[in-house]
Specification:
Layout: H1 2-11, H2 17-110, H3 116-208, E1 214-217, E2 220-224, H4 225-228, H5 238-257, E3 264-271, H6 286-303, E4 311-315, H7 328-334, E5 336-343
Parallel strand pairs: 3-4
Antiparallel strand pairs: 1-2, 2-5, 3-5
Helix pairs in contact: 2-3, 3-5, 5-6
Length: 344
């Protein structure tokens, strides 16, 4: 009778510790998930901005080419102006010499008819100076035309440069606006998927909470391998099929609830312990065993009506242990199938 009384008192005790652990695990799950989504959103944003940076670099390259051409044209303009100044000085010198010769001619004419030969020579020199002056004037006119053409080219280049700078400013504004809209869209998708993930995990807790070998670790549901598979096998046992039937029903409800524009998948990860498979084993390595088990789970869920587009299978072998110890308890925890609801 005393033992019966003791048992009754123990049955009336309420153990709050599992609920506290569950709440703490849920909080950790949400934090890790938000960090993962943030990193993913930053990755997509960096990809989008990288494409815009390529366009911006191309525009900057065009601007640099136009700037170099403008500088070259300005250099040519200065050279032509210097040449024009030189020709103008030469022309002034020629005119001065012409005046001097004309004065000398007048003096010689006043000296008498005996200077005819000298006069003829001077006239010849004057005529030569006139021809030089005419050629100089022609060159000056040509230089003026070239300077006018250069000025028109400079004006066109400056207009093109201003237009390019305006396009650059417009592109920068569009990139900034696109980044803001992308951040808003990603935040909305993250919030929506987080809500559905929370509902899905809550549903799984309801239907799978009776088993101690099915638990939540971070943002994943974890099945110990023994729940689903015999030792060293990828064939799902009858008890495992019952649990996966519950999971398939929850997944089909989730497929009906989540909008089609949200790209989500349930990733099924297979893991083994660190011990190698024995001689004559069906699989050559733990990696192959873990991948085959994950594929078996995915195939079974598909056979129960889950859309294959929402399933991913991955094998990690012994390389992602939960516990880094070498004992039976650690090996048992590391042999597992993990379920993670994530974006595609």
């Amino acid at each position: 009778m005393a033992m019966i009384g003791t048992r009754r008192r123990e049955s009336r005790r309420v153990d709050y510790w599992p609920s506290f652990v569950d709440a703490l695990s849920t909080l950790l799950l949400v934090i890790i998930f938000l960090l993962s989504v943030f990193m993913l959103s930053q990755f997509f944003l960096s990809q989008e901005i990288s494409g815009r940076d390529t366009l911006l670099n191309r525009l900057n390259s065009q601007i640099a080419e136009l700037t170099e051409l403008l500088a070259l044209e300005r250099t040519d303009k200065r050279a032509l102006e210097e040449q024009l100044a030189s020709l103008t000085d030469s022309l002034a010198s020629t005119e001065s010499e012409r005046g001097r010769l004309a004065g000398l001619l007048d003096e010689r004419l006043g000296a008498g008819s005996s200077a005819n030969e000298t006069i003829a020579k001077l006239r010849s020199e004057v005529q030569g100076e006139k021809e030089v002056s005419q050629r100089a004037l022609a060159q000056v006119e040509l230089l003026n035309q070239q300077i006018s053409a250069l000025r028109r080219q400079l004006a066109a280049l400056e207009t093109a440069l201003e237009a390019s700078e305006a396009r650059d400013r417009e592109s920068q504004s569009k990139i900034a606006d696109l980044g803001k809209r992308l951040n808003v869209a990603l935040a909305q998708r993250v919030q929506e998927l987080a809500r559905y993930r929370s509902d899905f995990f809550g549903r799984l807790r309801e239907i799978l909470s009776q088993r101690s070998d099915i638990r939540v670790v971070g943002d994943r549901f974890v099945f110990q391998s023994e729940v689903l598979f015999p030792s060293g096998s990828d064939q799902i046992n009858p008890a495992g099929r019952e649990e996966l039937d519950k999971l398939a029903a929850a997944l089909k409800e989730l497929e009906a609830d989540i909008p089609g524009e949200i790209a989500w998948v349930l990733r099924v990860d297979g893991h083994t312990d660190v011990r190698p498979l024995g001689a004559g084993a069906r699989f050559a390595s733990n990696w192959e065993l873990s991948a085959s088990r994950a594929i078996s789970v995915v195939k079974y869920l598909v056979s129960r009506g889950v859309d294959p587009a929402h399933l991913v299978a991955a094998g990690f072998g012994e390389f992602q242990p939960l516990v880094r110890e070498n004992n039976d308890d650690a090996w048992a925890q590391n042999r597992r199938i993990e379920l993670k609801l994530t974006e595609r």
